[in-house]
Amino acid sequence: MRPTAKFSISFGLVTIPVAAYNATDSSASVSFVRIHTADGGRVRNQPVCSVEGVEISPDEIGRGYRPGDGDTVVPLSDEDLDALPLPTAKTLTILAFVAGGDIDPLQMGKGYYLGIDSPAAAKPYVLLREAMERHQRVGLGKIALHGRETLAMIRPMEGALVMQVLLWPHQIRPMDGVLPERQVEVHANEVEAAETLMDSFGALSEDDVHDHYREALEEIVAAKLAHREPHFEAGEEPPAGGVMDLMAALQDSVRAARKSRGEDEEGEPARSTARSGRGTAKSTAKKGTAKTSTAKKTAAKKTAAGETTAKKSAAKKSAAKTTAAAKKTSGRGGRRAG
């Protein structure tokens, strides 16, 4: 990266020469060009002189300042701006160290990475970073960037120093007409339900911070160039309609959030299908074992009953034979006696 500005950080009697690098890339965002809808031609912004009515080349364009609301414009050259008696023109003087939470997020502007601009700046650079990390403070100061003075915040981040340009307090508009006109009462159980819903969201994923809009736009452009219909993955439609029952909506939202993460209604991990299957298999096996055991018992009973019946039948046959033999013997004896 190429630095966009070079200056020094003044920390008491310590001076740290630094170079500022753009921390954000606006070219990566979605942007459009203006076209003539009749023929698709580009509509460009041409620099035209309001006095002569002719187009002006870039090297003929300078700076001007308009005092008040009138039409008077005072030309200002680079030499005029360099002659401004501002210590912030080349130096960011830290005026105070405050807690990061004391800075209004509405004041946050463009961010810059700050790197050392000379080998001698390495030690004071690390010293300032370590002191702010341990003290949990950020530095506030002023710096002149791109021809204007601005507030700036310096904070440590991942082993480096980062500068955040801040808007002046008078640049923050008042909230007139923003707040509800009548007093709204929120019950304690509704606040608790909202907090439960907040806890159920979990952490951000990579997909959450992905620019899906840019991808969808590129697909539409590619489809138009290929004379085809765009292809999009089927997404889940957000619920439509007004919220009639706030508590019901909060509770349904909690259940939906937990379900999306594979949790049950109590927030516990839901039982997997595999575990359920194993439980069913074990139950089926137990039932099969019980049936087998019952069958064996029944067979054993039938076998024992059969053996008993067979024994009784054999005993009857034996008794019949004995009786028959006795009768024969008795008959022979009677005949002999006669």
Automatic annotation (TrEMBL):
Residues 329-338 have a biased composition (Basic residues). Residues 253-338 are annotated as: Disordered. It holds the Pfam family Ku. Residues 290-312 have a biased composition (Low complexity). Keywords: DNA recombination, DNA-binding. Residues 53-183 form the Ku domain. GO terms for molecular function: double-stranded DNA binding. GO terms for biological process: DNA recombination; double-strand break repair via nonhomologous end joining. PANTHER family: NON-HOMOLOGOUS END JOINING PROTEIN KU. This is Ku protein. It comes from Streptomyces sioyaensis.
